[in-house]
Amino acid sequence: MPNTNWSNLNPLQLGRYAEYYAKMEIASYGLEVFTSEVDDHGVDFICKKNKKEFMQIQVKSIRDYGYVFMQERKWDIVDTNLYLILLIFTDGNLPDVFLIPATEWQTESALFKYKKYEGLKSEPEYGLNLSKKNFHLLDRFRLDALFLNIEKPINDNK
User: Is the model's pLDDT at 90 over the cut of 70?
Assistant: First the structure.
């Protein structure tokens, strides 16, 4: 079992750990994982579900509650192949892992936010407002529950 004192890690270490953890979680369900050395388009890795379907994955991590975001120019909310893997780290526990389609941001809610920042230096962004009050809204995106409903990947070697 890994060390779960997440508060001992700085943000860069936690983010790096989250990316590796997300790749291992996806691979554990039989999907192929393809990584790139540079994340310049808001995609941390790509995974192949079967011969025809793939998913582009952006990974974000957070400790407990707060706000995470993706810049609008790197987050296409109409792309049905684009997903966020969110890892929520709480000391003493393995991270909670969620797989959220980018299309979810098409409808703003207590959880899914769009911030335009008109007239300000900040770029427009799509975010997740994570609080105790709305944490239950993430339940339908739990990675383990979602993969129970996804068809079994096709082995390309057969």
Answer: yes
